Amino acid sequence: MGWIGRLSREKGADIFLRAAAIVLAVRPDARFVVVGDGPDLSMLNALMQKLDIEESVSFVGRRGDMPGVYASLDVMVSSSRQEGLPMAILEGMASSLPLVATAVGDVPTLVLDGRTGITVPSEDVELLAAGIVSLLEDSKIRERYGKAARTLIEEQFSAEQMAAGYLRVYADVAPEKLGRANSSKSHLASAKGNETQELNK
Fold first, then answer.
1. Could you tell me if 81 and 123 are in contact, meaning their C-beta atoms sit under 8 angstroms apart?
2. With the CA atoms of 141, 81, 51 and 93 taken in that order, what torsion angle do they form, in degrees rounded to the nearest 10?
3. What fold, for 2-156?
4. Alpha carbon separation from 81 to 33, 55, 102 (Å, rounded)
5. Count of beta carbons in the 10 Å neighbourhood of residue 179
6. Residue 85, SS3?
7. Is the pTM higher than 0.90?
8. Mean pLDDT by 10 residues, the chain (201 residues)
9. Helix (H) or strand (E) holding 70
10. Residue 47 CB coordination number (10 Å)
């Protein structure tokens, strides 16, 4: 299971660790990795030791080989307390990873509960752990969610789709701006014509 992000309170890495402790009580063979850096690193290391899960959790810091990191995971977890549209989730889904995520910000528009992953309320450690266990114990659901996640990203967030979206916006805005531009040109042409007539008199 992988957690990726800035190690700060709003991202909820501490929630991930507490959920990991619950999961390990059921699945002692599970392994967890935390990718990222930030101001909460010392606190999170202390929490990991307090929970007695250091043998099953690895903090690997920032990585420059993220495609390989995503490929090494079976499940991706996002435990944010608040969020926008996290790039890590987009990248994880593009890598065909099923998600267990807290339903904050725009996350529910990506992690569709029962389709591309599992969503749980923010700060609900037990439900987060239950979601992780349910994916760990069913490889077919992991595969199905992972494929659906990749398809959603390809359909809505590919370069082609984003370019098409921009073109639609421009098409909506352009006629109004073009009309104003043509009106200005006509006004200038009329003014220049009047000036020419005055000079010829």
1. yes
2. 30
3. Rossmann fold (3.40.50)
4. 19, 26, 8
5. 10
6. coil
7. no
8. 97 98 97 98 98 98 95 97 94 97 96 97 98 97 98 81 44 53 49 46 47
9. helix 66-71
10. 17
**Backbone angles phi and psi of 21, in degrees to 5:** -60, -40
Give the number of C-alpha atoms closer than 13 A to the C-alpha of residue 3, restricted to the C-beta side.
Answer: 29
Cβ neighbours for 95, distance < 8 A, ≥ 6 positions apart: 67, 70, 71, 150
**Pairing verdict, β 99-102 and 117-120:** parallel
Residue type, 138: D
Domain segments of the chain as ranges: 2-156, 158-201
Tokens standing for residue 154? 């390809």
Tell me if residue 62 falls in helix, strand or coil: coil
d(CA 49, CA 162): 44
